[in-house]
Amino acid sequence: MIHEDARVATPHVGEGTRIWQFTVVLAKARIGRDCNINAQVFIENDVVIGDRVTVKSGVQLWDGVRVEDDVFIGPNATFTNDFLPRSRRRPEKFLPTVLKRGCSVGANVTIVAGVTIGECAMIGAGSVVTRDVPPFELWYGNPARRRGSVGEDGKIVEATPSP
């Protein structure tokens, strides 16, 4: 289902995926099966999204972002893809940012270019992720740091209180 007010230029949208109004998907992007791409999302050309991914409203996925299966991206999460951004100067290749299977990114999280969020990891709302996050860990803060662990079922199994 692609909403009539969405602009989807790619033919690579998996079966059962829903793309809502005012979303723009460029021609070379790839989106898997059974995803839910909410309203007002922008997906650039060199983006790959796996199966059963949820992308909430206000998210922009820039060139170089790779999202594996079963990932949740919260509203207004922000991704960067260039450490030295300058107007009208593009790098030859953007740094890859990878969200591994089953991870969750909270609302208003900022993820800098080149970071990998590990399998089933969870990033708390409002965090700024400046380095790789290992699998099954809970991170939050600015900059985000390890604050606990997450089980295979996605539930928090250990957490330290905020400082």
Largest sheet: 9 strands, mixed
Q: Count of helices? A: 0
Q: Would you identify the CATH architecture? A: 3 Solenoid
Choose one word for the global shape: globular
Strand content: 25-35%
CATH first level: Mainly Beta
Within the CATH hierarchy, at the fold level, what is the topology? UDP N-Acetylglucosamine Acyltransferase, domain 1
Give the terminus-to-terminus CA distance.
45 Å
- The ordered H/E elements are EEEEEEEEEEEEEEEEEEEEE
Low-confidence stretches are none
Say which CATH homologous superfamily is assigned: Hexapeptide repeat proteins
The percent of residues in helical segments reads under 10%
What is the CA-atom radius of gyration, in angstroms? 15 Å
Number of domains: 1
Structural class: mainly beta
Number of beta-strand segments: 21
Keywords for this entry:
163 residues; globular; nine-stranded mixed beta sheet; mainly beta; UDP N-Acetylglucosamine Acyltransferase, domain 1
Written account of the structure:
- By secondary structure, this protein is mostly beta strands.
- The protein has a single domain (7-83, 92-159), classed as UDP N-Acetylglucosamine Acyltransferase, domain 1 (3 Solenoid).
- 0% of the residues lie in helices and 33% in strands.
- It has a 9-stranded mixed beta sheet with strand order 2-5-8-11-14-17-19-20-21, with no helix packed on it. A 5-stranded parallel beta sheet has the order 4-7-10-13-16, with no helix packed on it. It has a 4-stranded parallel beta sheet with strand order 1-3-6-9, with no helix packed on it.
- A hairpin with a 2-residue loop joins β19 (137-141) and β20 (144-150).
- The N and C termini lie far apart (45 Å).
- The relative contact order is 0.11.
